[in-house]
Specification:
Structural class of chain B: alpha+beta
Distance between the termini of chain B: 53 Å
Number of domains of chain A: 3
Number of helices of chain A: 17
Distance between the termini of chain A: 45 Å
Largest interface: A-B, 29 and 24 residues
Number of helices of chain B: 12
Radius of gyration of chain B: 19 Å
CATH topology of the largest domain in chain A: Aldehyde Oxidoreductase, domain 4
CATH architecture of the largest domain in chain A: 2-Layer Sandwich
CATH class of the largest domain in chain B: Alpha Beta
Shape of chain B: globular
Oligomer: heterodimer
CATH superfamily of the largest domain in chain B: CO dehydrogenase flavoprotein, C-terminal domain
Largest sheet of chain A: 7 strands, mixed
Number of strands of chain B: 14
Structural class of chain A: alpha+beta
Bound molecules: flavin-adenine dinucleotide
CATH superfamily of the largest domain in chain A: Aldehyde oxidase/xanthine dehydrogenase, molybdopterin binding domain
Helix content of chain B: 25-40%
Number of domains of chain B: 3
Shape of chain A: globular
CATH class of the largest domain in chain A: Alpha Beta
CATH topology of the largest domain in chain B: Enolase-like, domain 1
Strand content of chain B: 15-25%
Strand order of the largest sheet of chain A: 4-6-2-13-10-11-12
CATH architecture of the largest domain in chain B: 2-Layer Sandwich
């Protein structure tokens, strides 16, 4: 690990408290739980990805011995839900809109009986044309949501029929400027959809006590899950308690309210606890949450010295059958089509379209890896046409302090140029390589999200502490790292703290483990809460030590007089008095210091300016087997500006995981969809994740500039960015070896081989 | 519908359970995983054979071996006679699944599952292996070459237990290789595989066997390719010619794993690589085991 400039005392690596139970198998996940009298749930999915439902008859299913409840849309309140657009019901009513749409839910004594009963639900359909081509769906005569105008939703979305969202980024006059360019390049790129694939499948257990329900669920967003249960079942949030046992990964796939409502409704009807555990097949077809397919058309005009005078872009994004929490994708994708570059004139149109495919929602940096993959190949092509080395072209065009971004946002100090130098240095850019190898470089960015978040900190009688937080630990270690922050404020050790988390009745509201924002926002809340406790300790110590407050400091578990350490009192002695030492915090969310000028743009959903942008350069060295098209990544370097790094172990872990996920998306992870709207590879045999044997060496460098608009100590996020430019870096390396670009993602062996064949014609 | 499960401790006990309609289960890595995948439900009646000592172990004699039905892929890879003289089989077992799969999966299960994509079939066919089947009415021997009749189907009767596999010693100057197209380095399924066994005497190929895997409803030998190799020096030109014949003999399908065109092209590449490595081994050059990653340019 290398650190650039501003050396400071390196943060002490802190080993996460939940690590041991997880790696030794002692940890308990939702699917491991069993409640007395518990029933098992199964869903009946639609038989046709797009069809009008003309009749549902559950009587045979209800009559099967062992069945306690069968629910359809008739048995729950007629309520629609969804993120920016409320277009979905728990159970399909008038129409089924994708392969995983749920018609009925069953609770029975065994999973087998539940499955048998689900199959007995009689459903009649009127088949409708299946829209799998999301690019042309806005001009299709068939609507995915016939009555879309009656669905409530965010006005800024720009909905129109099958167009779920529309955003533009317009700066200056791109058409005019394009005409003046010395060199113009154009490209069309198509990224297939992919999945998050957490190893723990979705699991939910619900149990009612009177009119209150407790739901244990494998969610990344417990408060959104609680809100969803309350909304769909028509009960107050105070009647719903969501608890998340250990979470076995999410990668975004467990964001949003998903199945908690169905299971709670089944448990209520059955009057027994009900448990749902997804199979791997369901994990692919039914979680209504995947990384969106995107078609990217892009054109850039540059002057001979590389100055980027104009960029035009047209993006079509597969929104799938429902909005989910992916409503902001059109604008987010457009921001990535501009990228972290100085471009004088920009005109990008981005359309998020309904289709009969699985709904798209956040998977680790939604839209960014796909769009970045296209843009970064495009930049390399531009460099070739200009006769400028691709790294040099980036050096000339990347944003820096004082530069204006695509929406006029003027940036504070940021270190993307430094990440470019670091990544290329680590990978040995420019070295002699065998003829079947090359190094590719790509840059990218991702915003930090400033949202409200809360925490309490309290001290125990023996001087140890408890952090009570609403934040959710999805496996990244972000919540596990909160003690580092409290400990610093209180002069204690991180090991002194217990953490109460993942219980909506305990912690304050939090957005959940999404948007790389836990440390960024909840970190500030914990620091504020610990700060209140600090004041209380100082109040007490002032009297005990008969010293002026300004002369006191907290360190090594004591409050002491600065400079005369023998005048001190242990925190344990202060807490031993029985006084309630309790602090609360809700760190104020920062704003970008200069906002965006969105006056020429439409469809602003709040990401037109990037708060504390996280900046990345990655470099991949690949080897291509020209006879087969098989690509191996043999060496990798990742350099990040994520602001101040608070816990190096945790930050490095995110980069390792993100890069490996990115390599999978680059080379092998893609969901294939048939013309019938069904996934063709919904299982781990043919949806190919990268294995440990495929993982190259990954070298990491941090550019630690404390961010002015950042989180604790000037930190930014880190969870999502490592996946952003990975496929772009791999793509640029492949092109260098084979001479042509692979314009479909993932760049599978057959696609690479086809590109080689076409090139040799 | 009651399920029965018997963990047999002798072959006699196992075959009488089979006669009663039970299905054998060894490592379960095909049977159980297949059921989870929805291929076929777990049979109502199972006889587990993993505790039968008679079915264990690998014994070498001369340059050949007898594999007990329970020999695991890991034991095969580790066996010195197999590595030295029957190398294609070691190449095959070394790339089955992951470390865990290789420790649990058995040769008997691999063969009797009869997948057209399974790894050990091509090498066993080309090395002239036979299997011994036992039932309540006695034992018989079947050449692996004549065993497979379709995907998941063999000439074995439902009451027959595979007890052992005999792989004969190969003539002096023989080298062999199994090579598979690998999208990733572990947990892969053969999309295209090829086996070559060649005997080279004084620079001339005197005998050759070639088989292709995952390119037809069963693993199949390619006699035309074999004939094309005999009498040549086994060099690039000869290997290419034989490889082209293997590609023409293939009957690939188009599916999520690849198009028929790509598979056919890869049939030639894999066959050529297998032949080249087999010739190299026959002439005393070393090609690491498993051959696949090395032949595909992995580090
Ligand atoms: C993750 C994973 C990866 C895999 N990768 C590969 C791979 O790369 N290449 C490959 O070839 N295979 C692979 N397999 C398949 C499997 O592991 C092998 O085929 C293994 O050798 C099967 O052996 P088993 O003992 O587990 O078979 P089982 O599942 O126990 O049995 C398989 C079939 O053979 C029958 N059977 C078993 N033993 C006998 C016997 N002695 N007599 C008669 N019938 C018998 C059973 O009734 C059943 O029909 C993989 C499996 C998994 C789960």
């Amino acid at each position: 690990m290398a650190t650039v400039e501003e050396p400071r005392a390196a943060a002490r690596p802190f080993i996460r408290p939940d690590g041991k139970e997880k790696v030794t198998g002692v940890g308990r996940y939702t699917a491991d739980m069993t409640l007395t009298g518990q029933l098992h749930a199964k869903f009946r999915y639609t038989d046709h990805p797009h069809a009008r439902i003309t009749r549902i008859d559950a009587s045979k299913a209800r009559a099967l011995p062992g069945v306690f409840a069968v629910l359809t849309h008739e048995d729950v309140p007629d309520v629609k839900y969804g993120g920016m657009v409320q277009d979905r019901r728990l159970f399909a009513k008038e129409k089924a809109r994708f392969e995983g749409d749920i018609i009925a839910g069953v609770a029975a004594t065994t999973p087998e009986i539940a499955a048998a009963a689900a199959a007995l639900v009689e459903v009649e359909y009127e088949l409708l044309p299946v829209i799998t081509d999301y690019e042309t769906s806005p001009s299709s005569a068939t609507l995915v949501h016939d009555a879309w105008e009656t669905d409530s939703g965010d006005e800024s979305m720009g909905r129109d029929g099958n167009r779920l969202g529309f955003s533009t980024i317009v700066k200056g006059d791109a058409d005019g400027a394009m005409a003046t360019a010395d060199v113009i390049v154009r490209g069309r790129y198509v990224a297939d959809c992919s999945h998050g694939v957490p190893i723990e499948p979705h699991a939910v257990i619900a149990q009612w006590t009177g009119d209150r329900v407790t739901v244990w669920t494998s969610t990344q967003v417990p408060f959104a899950a609680r809100g969803g249960v309350a909304r769909t079942l028509g009960i107050p949030e105070s009647h719903v308690r969501v608890i998340v046992p250990l979470l076995g990964g999410g990668f975004g796939a467990k964001c949003d309210f998903h199945f908690e409502g169905h299971v709670a409704a089944l448990a209520k009807a059955a009057r027994r606890p009900v448990k749902l555990v997804f199979s791997r097949h369901e994990e692919f077809v039914a979680i209504d949450h995947r990384r969106e397919g995107i078609t990217i058309e892009i054109e850039t005009g540059a002057m001979a010295d590389g100055t980027l005078v104009a960029r035009r872009g047209r993006l079509a994004i597969d929104g799938g059958a429902y909005c989910g929490e992916g409503g902001f994708f059109a604008q987010m994708a457009a921001m990535h089509a501009a990228g972290p570059y100085k471009i004088t004139n920009v005109n990008i149109e981005s359309s998020l379209n309904y289709s009969n495919n699985q709904p798209s929602s956040s998977i680790r940096a939604p839209t960014a890896p796909q769009v970045c993959w296209a843009v970064e190949q495009h930049m390399d092509e531009l460099a070739r046409k200009l006769g400028i080395d691709p790294v040099e072209l980036r050096r000339r065009t990347l944003i820096h302090e004082g530069a204006a971004g695509p929406t006029g946002q003027v940036f504070d100090r940021l270190g993307i140029l430094e990440t470019l130098e670091k990544a290329t240095e680590l990978i040995g850019y420019g070295q002699e390589l065998p003829e079947d190898e090359a190094i590719g470089v790509a840059c990218g960015w991702w915003p930090s999200f400033g949202v409200p978040s809360g925490a309490y900190v309290k001290l125990n009688a023996d001087g140890s502490g408890v952090i009570v937080t609403g934040a959710q630990e999805s496996g990244t270690g972000a919540v596990m790292g909160l003690p580092i922050l409290a400990a610093k404020v209180l002069g204690m050790k991180p090991e002194d703290f217990a953490i109460v988390y993942q219980d909506t009745d305990a912690g304050p509201w939090d957005m959940g483990s999404s948007g790389s924002q836990t440390t960024f926002n909840n970190g500030r809340a914990v620091i504020a809460a610990a700060g209140e406790v600090r004041e209380q300790l100082l109040d007490m110590a002032e009297k005990e030590l008969e010293a002026a407050r300004g002369d006191l400091e907290l360190a090594d578990g004591v409050v002491r007089v600065k400079g005369s350490h023998d005048r001190s009192i242990a925190i344990a002695e202060l807490t031993g008095s029985g006084a309630a030492l309790l602090g609360k915090g809700s760190g104020e969310a920062p704003e970008p210091s200069v906002g965006a000028d969105m006056s020429a743009c439409v469809g602003d959903l709040g990401v037109g300016a990037f708060l504390a942008p996280q900046l990345i350069t990655q470099a991949a060295r690949v080897r291509v087997d020209r006879d087969t098209g098989v690509v191996r990544v043999v060496d990798f370097a990742a350099a990040h500006d994520s602001g101040t790094i608070l816990n190096p172990i945790g930050a490095n872990g995110q980069v390792y995981g993100g890069v490996v996920m990115g390599i999978g998306q680059a080379l092998s992870e893609g969901t294939q969809i048939g013309a019938d709207g069904r996934q063709k590879n919904p299982h781990l045999l043919d949806y190919k994740l990268v294995t440990v044997a495929d993982t190259p060496r990954i070298q990491i460098a941090w550019v630690e500039y404390a961010a002015v608009d950042g989180g604790p100590e000037g930190s930014k996020g880190i969870g999502e960015p490592p996946s952003v430019p990975t496929s772009g870096a791999v793509a640029n390396a492949i092109t260098k070896v084979i001479g042509n670009q692979v314009k479909q993602l993932p760049m599978t062996p057959e696609r690479v081989w086809n590109t080689i064949q076409e090139g040799s014609k | 519908m009651s399920r029965t499960y018997l963990a047999a401790t002798s072959v006699t006990e196992a075959v009488s359970a089979l006669a009663g309609g039970a299905r054998a289960i060894a490592g379960g890595t095909d049977l159980v995983v297949g059921a989870r995948h929805g291929k076929a439900p777990i049979p109502q009646s199972l006889v587990a054979i993993h505790e039968i000592d008679e079915l264990r172990g690998i014994t070498g004699s001369g340059g050949g071996v007898r594999l007990g039905a329970l020999a695991s892929h890991e034991e095969i890879v580790d066996h010195p006679v197999i590595r030295e003289h029957l190398t294609a089989l070691a190449d095959a077992s070394a790339i089955v699944g992951s470390h865990a799969t290789r420790h649990v999966g058995t040769i008997g299960g691999n063969i009797m599952n009869a997948s057209p994509a399974m790894e050990s079939g091509g090498p066993l066919m080309c090395l002239g292996a036979t299997i011994t089947l036992q039932s309540t009415s006695g034992t018989r021997t079947v050449a692996v070459d004549e065993l497979f009749t379709g995907p998941g189907r063999t000439v074995a009767e439902s009451g027959e237990l595979l007890v052992s596999v005999d792989v004969p010693a190969q003539p002096a100057g023989t080298g062999s290789c199994y090579c598979r197209l690998e999208y990733r380095r572990q947990m892969e399924i053969a999309i295209v595989g090829a086996t070559a066994v060649v005997t080279v005497v004084d620079g001339t190929v005197t005998a050759a066997r070639v088989a292709i895997t995952a390119l037809a409803p069963t693993i199949r030998r390619v006699p035309e390719a074999e004939a094309a190799l005999v009498g040549t020096d086994g060099g690039r030109v000869a290997a290419d010619a034989a490889a082209a014949l293997a590609a023409s003999a293939s009957a690939p399908i188009s599916d999520v794993r690849g198009s028929a065109d790509y598979r056919r092209a890869m049939a030639a590449v894999m066959t050529r690589r297998a032949i080249e490595a087999a010739v190299a081994r026959a002439t005393g050059q070393s090609v690491s085991i498993p051959a696949s990653p090395a032949l595909h340019g992995a580090v």
